[in-house]
Design a protein that fits this description.
Layout lengths: L6 E2 L5 E2 L5 E10 L2 E11 L4 E5 L6 H8 L7 E6 L2 E3 L4 H6 L2 E4 L11 H5 L14 H16 L16 H14 L4 E5 L7 H16 L3 E6 L2 H7 L2 E6 L2 E7 L5 H10 L1
Parallel strand pairs: 5-10, 5-11, 8-9, 9-10
Antiparallel strand pairs: 1-2, 3-4, 3-6, 6-7, 11-12
Helix pairs in contact: 4-5, 5-6
């Protein structure tokens, strides 16, 4: 897999470099169904990597394993070249990984502020919530990272937001808590064209500021807009790894159609 040995600098060009995360020889079976078979996967600094494949290719299983919510049967992980264990969601987050699933994992009946700090609430010595500090910080996060029409207050209820706005809040939360790898599992599947363009723009912007993104999708045209590198999966295996400049949408489409 020598063709995968690239990193992306802040200008989006490829250069030699070491990955910040590696999954090696990852396999997972559910009974007689082999969901993943000896999968290698790397994330490099400042890149958007497209994890491509049709339904059942193994993309979501790999993401769940990297997120710590599913344990592999075999495989190992490296963070900046050093072995790590990812045996829980907490361990994944400690490794710098944040995952945004299709359902976004926000609580609709709670405010933006409470969603941003869910599980990480700020409290004083007496154990009371530092509401003003959380409110001010949430507003700063929205101003700095979201910048999307309609999100004007951290007190807005998440259920009142559109799909694209909810994605923006989830992304802002991840970036604020200093994760440098963001896994987005089919983030545009339920969005309008305008909201899709905004989320794609977030990924490009994040990569330029030091947050690498894994864009899980079966939409090759969206992937081609933002990805520096592609990892194509079929039937639980990685069948191709290529930089954007070394392949075409037609070639990727052919791979997906014939596997």
């Amino acid at each position: 897999m020598a063709e995968a040995q690239v990193a992306i600098d802040e200008t989006g060009s490829a250069e030699a470099g070491a990955p910040i995360f590696e999954a090696r020889g990852v396999s997972k079976s559910y009974g007689h169904v082999e969901a993943l078979i000896d999968v290698d996967f790397e994330i490099y600094p400042n890149e958007v990597v497209g994890l491509l494949g049709d339904n059942g290719a193994g993309k979501s299983t790999l993401i769940k394993i990297m997120s710590g919510v599913v344990q592999p049967d075999t495989g190992s992980f490296l963070r900046a070249g050093k072995p790590i264990n990812i045996n829980s969601r907490r361990a994944s987050e400690a490794a710098g990984i944040e995952t945004i699933y299709q359902d976004i994992a926000l609580v609709g009946s709670m405010s933006i502020m409470r969603n941003i700090f869910a599980g990480r609430e700020l409290v004083n010595k007496a154990g009371f919530l530092r509401m003003k500090e959380m409110r001010d910080t949430a507003m700063e996060i929205l101003d700095k990272y979201v910048r999307i029409a309609g999100i004007t207050s951290p007190e807005l209820m998440v259920e009142e937001l559109s799909g694209g706005q909810q994605q923006a809040v989830a992304i802002a939360r991840a970036v604020h808590f200093k994760h440098d790898m963001l896994l987005l599992d089919e983030p545009t599947s339920a969005l309008s064209v305008r909201e899709t363009e905004k989320v794609l723009g977030f990924m490009t912007e994040l990569a330029s500021t030091g947050v690498s993104c894994v864009f899980v999708t079966h939409n090759l045209y969206q992937a081609s807009q933002v990805c520096h590198r592609f990892v194509v999966m079929a039937h639980g295996r990685v069948i191709k790894v290529a930089r954007k400049e070394d392949t075409t949408i037609e070639e990727l489409t052919e791979l997906l159609v014939t596997h």
